[in-house]
Write a structure and sequence with these properties.
Number of helices: 4
Largest sheet: 2 strands, antiparallel
Number of domains: 1
Radius of gyration: 18 Å
Shape: globular
Oligomer: single chain
Order of helices and strands: HHEEHH
Strand content: 5-15%
Strand order of the largest sheet: 1-2
Helix content: 10-25%
Length: 136
């Protein structure tokens, strides 16, 4: 129990200026905590001047496969293009999302952790130089 309390309440988040991060959600008559709809989020992002960055996230899982290996369910999140800006973090390699990738049909992109990248087979001698991954 102490480990959970320490990780969540005592130890600071691993982001620059964690005291400036705010988590918000919507509510309905039935639920105190509910998701904010995409149209409401876009409206808030356009109109709220109180925040430097307003980002959205939805936890989910994805089916991922590499080569001949079977698909694997991995935890992840669908996020708005500015999610990493809101956290104040940048990728070690490659890029994060672009605003146009929030458009239906243009959203088939992913940012994966370096640890996840290392789990996939590579045809090159360096996993860091996989064609078709970093920066695409």
């Amino acid at each position: 129990m102490f480990t959970l309390v320490e990780a969540v309440l005592i130890r600071p988040l691993a982001f620059p200026e964690p005291e400036r991060l705010v988590f918000a959600n919507g509510s309905t008559p039935q639920y105190d905590r509910a998701a904010v709809s995409p149209p409401d989020y876009l409206d808030y992002r356009e109109r709220l001047a109180s925040f430097d960055v307003l980002s959205a996230t939805m936890l989910t899982s994805f089916s991922v496969s590499a080569g001949d290996e079977g698909a694997e369910q991995v935890p992840g999140a669908c996020v708005s293009y500015n999610f990493f800006d809101a956290l104040g973090v940048a990728p070690v390699e490659g890029r994060t999302f672009r605003v146009e990738e929030e458009t239906e049909g243009q959203h088939r992109v992913a940012v994966i952790s370096y640890g996840r990248l290392l789990r996939y087979p590579s045809d090159t001698s360096s996993r860091r130089t996989r064609p078709g991954t970093a920066g695409r």
